UniProtKB/TrEMBL annotation:
The keyword Membrane applies. It comes from Strigamia maritima (European centipede). This is G-protein coupled receptors family 1 profile domain-containing protein. The keyword Membrane applies. Its main location: membrane. It is found in: Membrane. Keywords: G-protein coupled receptor, Membrane, Receptor, Transducer, Transmembrane, Transmembrane helix.
Amino acid sequence: MEMDNTCNISYPPSMGECISMDNPEDMLKPWFINPHFVPIMITHALTFLVGVIGNVIIITTMTRDKSSRNATSMFLVSLAVADLLLLVVCIPLETLHYFVVTWDAEGAICKLSSYAEMVSAVASVLNLTAVSLERYIVIVYPMKSRSFCTMSNCRRALFLVWIVALILSIPVTITRSTVPFTYYNSDSNITITIFYCWDGDERGGLPFVIAVYQCCIMFIFPCLLMVFCYSRVIKELWISTKAVIKMLILVILLFLVCWGPRVIMQILIKHGLTFYSPIIYSIRVACMQLPFVHSCLNPIIYSLMSSNFRRMILQSCTKHCSCCCFIDRRRVSSRRGIPSTASTNYELTFNSEVIRGGPVTRPFHLFYNV
């Protein structure tokens, strides 16, 4: 691609950017000019398919099973809704933009997609933080949790989570808009204009402030709080089964790995890091896809690490799917309840009434079966 010095060429890109190239019409073929197009499309397709199916299963399974409906399960249902918002709104719009390049000249769809993505991210973070706080209170302060971690308080917290997410996500709409790039060939008199969803000013200023703001509310503060809560929980449960510790560590690592690179990359770009380098651009593309991947991981983790979640799915299949009639209903139903006195002193459950250091004195339906 050859740039014409007579055009308004600058970095960061600005309104009215024009680039001279031999075949401007190639810009309408993303599979031809973008080396990352195929991996991006595969990632979008797989995360959309797995994420939508998995999160719908989580929502339907947990809402139908009244025995497992408690504070933590409701937060995880809310987390699944936040993941669905990212999957259903952002992935289709981002995928469609590769093929329809002039549909959002005014920037309305760009702002909507960016706002929905931010709401989903903040809601996910707040739900994860709420779960960690609920677990912290239940495990470390079991007697206080009886009056504090109730379903009525859970509903208030869920309402607050989404209201706060909607409010905290508003700043992203201030700088986010479409930026036109004009590709032309003076010999053939062919001109192609493509609108990219972008910040008007990529370096410094208000976009940098908003990038730091996003990093703080989506990454730094929630991570510090979750690390504190889970470290205390791990300390209390150290004598218990190792499966609990593995689960808690995995929750933290998944959050760090999937959201950390993206928010850090955003700050670096707003601070002046150029992504015109092929290596930097490839890293940026990978970082932008990680939150999409994260939105489909929770159902997989639940299925792999929770025998009780698998049990609820099997029970749902026996009730609603004729193809699951081969399942031994007696074996499934025999696991619905747990004896009135549990054999372990420490249980990480979805029920808020956990007595530290003593046996559980009423039936529980465990989600994280330990």
